[in-house]
Amino acid sequence: MKNRILVSFAAALSLVFAGGASAQPSASGLTDGIAAYRAGDVETAWPLLAAASEDGAIKAKRYLAYIMLDGETPKGREADLFKGVALLKEAALAGDYAALIRLENLRRKHLAHSPSLDDMIAIEEARAEEGDPVVAWRLAKRFEMGDGVEVSEAGMTKWLEVAASAEPARFPKAGEAAYRLCELNALGREAKDPDAARRWCAVAAENGHMGAAIVLKRLAQLQG
């Protein structure tokens, strides 16, 4: 448990074309940089990824961080573990799940440059506030287990609502999140709301949760 993101028409057109022309090399540079990294050629990868990172490419930040944190920074380049972690944080805040996972793995190692649990929760809360269902689900679990936060049904509810409101195609556990909300509103200790329980149970059933479908059927029988 402990281990446990307008100008005139002519001028606008010129900006679009100029932007497209400049974006292509950046995208190509990112792709080539990642390919070089995966091939073990960090000397080639570094300048390509560094340029893409300067252009705002999130993946580039993550891969640069990998190079730094793995001790593979080319000679003459900055080999700063704390900078590597900072790049991972930037990527994670922008919605890069791989960066978030790497940060969590680093946290568990308790190294000098490892992010703290408070750092991780701050990133997760920022992403969840933006409507990220994956991270919202993770936060709900924290409030359920007391992982870095006080156990709180209100905290669980807040983040479960974000997760449950996502389309199942985007977040497959949306139905499960809705069912947990049904349970909390029906059986919770902090506050009970039968209407909310039925509503979330219906959402869960619509999203394919068999348990919710059974509960709704029983409720219908009792009311009938």
From TrEMBL:
Pfam family, any one: Sel1
Entries under SUPFAM superfamilies matching the protein: HCP-like
Keywords: Signal
Cleaved signal peptide residues: 1-23
Protein name: Sel1 repeat family protein
